[in-house]
User: What shape does this take?
Amino acid sequence: MKISEHIYRIDGTNANVYVIFSESGVVQIDSGFRGQLQRIRAFYSSLGVRPGFVLITHSHIDHIWELARVVDEYSPEVYAHPLEAQVIEGQRPMYSSSLLLGVFGRLLRPRPVKGIKGIISMNIKGLEAVETPGHTPGSTSFIYVDDGKKYIFAGDAAFEANGRLFVNRRYATDVSVAERSLDKIIHMGPGIVLPGHGNPVVV
Ligand SMILES: [Zn+2]
Ligand SMILES: [Zn+2]
Assistant: This one.
């Protein structure tokens, strides 16, 4: 699905995988859950491009499962918050808000990816990283301005249902911090929030 002149959402991915055609190169946001590499690959091959960068909003498995295979295939630079990078690199278990999610996270562990770069060192033209913790400690939103409009890639710091943004309390490691981050995201507007789950919302 085309979102703007330079932004796409790869159809059928969940969590949503977004792609930005930036001046610095092709930037992918998040990496999808198990089995979604095919859709990601089909997207790139249909346009004859490959990602130069992958930015990770946070380390939950539905956002990073296919990261190892995306890296195998395209060798992009990968950026994440250091607290999330520890999970992605396999140094600590997935952040979980519940016993069930914790068990799930221990049973289903994606292949670790080493060499994750910190968001602070990110230097991609037009892209800015903003810490929006609470869903997980290192949850990060990415902002990109396209054709004068601000697009906010919020990961799971903002869930969408029925056109409304909310904190998914069930999966937040700290609900009150997450509520503050959602408020921060809404106040980044005017713009368009692109959530990890659900559809774009104008703020
Ligand atoms: Zn998610
Ligand atoms: Zn999540």
